[in-house]
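Format notes (please read before filing issues)

Several people have asked whether sequences and structure tokens are stored in separate files. They are not. Every record keeps both together, in the order shown below: the sequence lines, then the token lines. Line labels are part of the format and must not be stripped during preprocessing.
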Amino acid sequence: MDMAWFIYTISLMLLVIVACSTCFMVWVLTSRRDWLVSAAAFVCYALEVSIIFYGEYVGNKPYLTGYFNTGLQWPWLTLPLDIVLITLVWSWVRERVHAPLGRRQVVVFAVVFGVVSVAVAPIGDLTGAVRNMLYWGWRDAAIIFAVGYGYWWYRSHASKNERVDIERSTPFFRAMAVLSVIMLCEDVFFIMFFHPETTAGTPLHSFLWHLTERNLTENAIVIVCAVRTIMSARDLMVVYAQHPAESTGDREADQFALDIDARVPRFCDQYGISQREREVLRLVLLKKSTQEIATGLFISTGTVKAHLHRIYSKAGITNRQDLTTAFWRF
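Then the structure lines:
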């Protein structure tokens, strides 16, 4: 059993490290802030798993029957990591749903979450099952809130094109919402209702000792996020390596252009759009007028219209708005 948990923990850490490295490489290649946020979040989670692993390795982890009556083993390290990790999750969700993300939004969330976390943390004499439940429950609730906020923003503030883009991640967000609720239920069961003494002397006792301080549903969430991140990063790195983007100096404009550049090659390959038509398509998606496209490509407006007509025909649409919608839905 100990060997199985050892391999499981090492494998999880390796997956998280690979996902972190991949995110960092994409950030270096594209300068997209959401990838840097993801890299930082994976670093924090890897450190959290390392703390658990170290506690088991050196024998500092409390015995199972009294585990949830004790406090955090290393609160000076666990608390800051939790605050940073959950703040990064919140920041990533805002980035993904195209919600404004500035220093004010990050600081306000970090302060509120941090103050409550410190207030309910099981430290020193303030321990026990209820205290542990308040701490870990608050952490789980913050993740659920972040996912719920993303859904609320999508429903009430996202533009039509942003909604089409976000809808591509609907299965992922639904899975995260369900898993987050299950994660909270798992913590409630093990902290408040489970009686570990009933398993004493059985192989299950060792299994449950390793399971304490871990949350298998939380691990499942991280595994899904890591695999999805690695697969998305692979596609993006191929695109940006072949079609490097130029910076305009405007962060929001650059982000919008980078999102377009990441999808244009695959969209054009799907519908057999030529290289010249691709250039016209990109400028259309950047909301340039027919005259601006003609000037930028040194062609006549009639030629621009001819290219657009061929793009519409290949994609099975009839106007710019339908073209934009089809592109972001692709």
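For reference, the curators noted about this record: The two ends are 46 Å apart (CA to CA). The domain at 246-329 is CATH 1.10.10.10 (Arc Repressor Mutant, subunit A).
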